[in-house]
């Protein structure tokens, strides 16, 4: 119960069928394993393989690249459906597409695309995107990892942290941002493909995280790791602009994930309110609970409208940077607010990890941080309004 009717959102028949298909998969395959996966902090590779067989990793890519010929709306619908029941699985798909395959598709050479995309878009392989560092998060320009050319090879030194899909059994490579020189007195940042198993490239132990326990996340270190010069992804010195474009798209996907999390909390709260009896009557009969759940429904609706609008702009080739920031801000707030309210409605049961709302409560906080913090989204929106630091008007 509680799902909003997708027929009211202007979706095509194919898009509605995709959403229904993934929703069924989420309920029948993903949800039953979610608690054990969270408890054991294990990403289910069989589930990942099934998502690959369904074509989910290739959704927004053209058929001639090995994809499904869909768009970002299709990807968002799949991510949203998965996030209702398991955010760890949803972020595995989101990162696999937005941060793993998309940089290769957008900026790779024909040879790189031909070599890497078939396995990435089929889900046979995953890839990570090494951007964040101990001293470079929101301030990505503070990147310290370096790469220098030596006898036809890039020699990479540095460290990355919080890198998703970087240590799974099927992780094929990570794309890292590195300082490769200077341009006009500023750091020249480029992106370089580093295959798994490269000598000098070490994947550290998985993090002990507050949430997203079943998502694969590791720190990375590079000590004179050498890769061919041809592993440069995109033009030298364009790494900064490349990752900004990738993050703009990724924020739409994170907004869809957040919407799914908010919807999962809404559905759980409705079901619990109908079945839980307090002082001889269902919890749903109390107006305070009715109003609380009504606000949860409102948040899901607004969040879905926001990410769908940003995705449609992106799919039409129109500017979407500000709309992506608005979508991520709106939806991540909705996820956190709905997780808090659902946990309150569940009472003591909401504090037990066997209940999905407890896992959503832990998982949703990162949605306000990853792929651009709340403060970064506010900054993007403010700049679009012409508000800048030092404005004296």
From TrEMBL:
Where would one find the signal peptide in this protein?
none
Q: Which Pfam families match?
A: Acyl-CoA_dh_1, Acyl-CoA_dh_M, Acyl-CoA_dh_N
TM regions (residue ranges): none
What name has this protein been given in UniProt?
A: Acyl-CoA dehydrogenase family protein
Which part of the chain is the Acyl-CoA oxidase/dehydrogenase middle domain? 129-223
Residues forming the Acyl-CoA dehydrogenase/oxidase C-terminal domain are 237-385
**Coiled-coil positions:** none
**This protein's record includes keyword Flavoprotein:** yes
- Keywords of this protein's UniProt record, alphabetized? FAD, Flavoprotein, Oxidoreductase
Is Isomerase one of the keywords UniProt gives this record? Answer: no
Q: Which family does it belong to?
A: Belongs to the acyl-CoA dehydrogenase family.
Query: Acyl-CoA dehydrogenase/oxidase N-terminal domain location, by residue?
Result: 12-123
Q: Which organism is it from?
A: Microbacterium memoriense
Write down the PROSITE patterns for this protein, in alphabetical order: ACYL_COA_DH_1, ACYL_COA_DH_2
The cofactor(s) it depends on are: FAD
């Amino acid at each position: 119960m509680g799902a909003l009717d997708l027929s009211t959102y202007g979706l095509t028949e194919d898009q509605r069928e995709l959403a229904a298909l993934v929703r069924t998969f989420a309920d029948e395959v993903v949800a039953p394993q979610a608690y054990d996966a969270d408890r054991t902090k294990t990403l289910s590779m069989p589930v990942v393989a099934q998502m690959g067989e369904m074509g989910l990793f290739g959704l927004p890519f053209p058929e001639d690249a090995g994809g499904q010929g869909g768009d970002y709306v299709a990807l968002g619908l799949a991510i949203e459906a998965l996030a209702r029941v398991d955010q760890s699985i949803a972020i595995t798909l989101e990162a696999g597409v937005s941060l793993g395959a998309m940089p290769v598709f957008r900026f790779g050479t024909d040879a790189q695309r031909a070599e890497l995309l078939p396995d990435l878009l089929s889900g046979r392989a995953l890839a990570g995107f090494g951007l964040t560092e101990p001293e470079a998060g929101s301030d990505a320009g503070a990147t310290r990892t370096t790469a220098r050319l030596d006898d036809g090879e890039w020699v990479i030194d540095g460290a990355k942290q919080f890198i998703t899909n970087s240590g799974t059994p099927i992780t094929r490579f990570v794309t890292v941002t590195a300082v490769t020189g200077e341009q006009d007195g500023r750091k020249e940042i480029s992106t370089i493909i580093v295959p798994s198993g490269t000598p000098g490239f070490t994947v550290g132990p998985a993090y002990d995280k507050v949430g997203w326990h079943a998502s694969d996340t590791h720190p990375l270190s590079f000590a004179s790791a050498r890769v061919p010069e041809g592993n440069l992804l995109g033009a030298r010195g364009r790494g900064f602009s490349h990752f900004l474009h990738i993050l703009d798209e990724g924020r739409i996907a994170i907004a869809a994930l957040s919407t799914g999390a908010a919807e999962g909390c809404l559905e759980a709260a409705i079901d619990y309110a109908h079945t839980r009896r307090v002082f001889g009557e269902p919890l749903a009969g109390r107006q305070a609970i009715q109003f609380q759940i009504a606000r949860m429904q409102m948040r899901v609706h607004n969040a879905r409208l926001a990410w769908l609008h940003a995705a449609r702009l992106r799919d039409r080739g129109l500017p979407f940077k500000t709309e992506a920031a608005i979508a991520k801000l709106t939806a991540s707030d909705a996820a956190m607010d709905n997780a808090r309210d659902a946990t309150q409605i569940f009472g003591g049961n909401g504090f037990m990890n066997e209940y999905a709302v407890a896992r959503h409560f832990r998982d949703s906080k990162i949605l306000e941080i990853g792929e651009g913090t709340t403060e970064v989204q506010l900054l993007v929106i403010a700049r679009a309004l012409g508000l800048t630091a030092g404005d004296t008007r």
